[in-house]
Recover the amino acids of this structure.
């Protein structure tokens, strides 16, 4: 960890807690999506193995857990989708529609 990162608050973010601000930072840092080289693996306080990608603000280092939902949401990102929400509102970022779920609806 370099000197400038030593004083940053570290926050682990799950998809359910993802805010428009953090999503925008992710898309800015990884405009073509993230790959294995960008993923950081570590153990959390419960000794669980976590895979995450990192984005940093002036005072905070966010470690965002990687998932299919995150990848799809980043791929479909449009900042206009969040203009009616506060930057720190975790309710703004909704679960993306995954193709398999849509196919299940056709079974009726």
């Amino acid at each position: 960890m370099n000197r400038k990162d030593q004083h940053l608050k570290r926050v682990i973010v799950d998809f359910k807690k993802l805010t428009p601000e953090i999503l925008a930072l992710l898309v800015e840092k990884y405009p073509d999506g993230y790959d294995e080289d960008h993923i950081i693996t570590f153990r959390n306080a419960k000794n669980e193995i976590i895979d995450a990608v990192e984005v940093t603000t002036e005072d905070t280092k966010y470690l965002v857990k990687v998932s299919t939902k995150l990848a799809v949401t980043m791929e479909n990102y449009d900042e206009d989708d969040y203009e009616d929400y506060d930057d720190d509102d975790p309710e703004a970022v909704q679960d993306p529609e995954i193709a398999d779920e849509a196919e299940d609806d056709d079974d009726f």
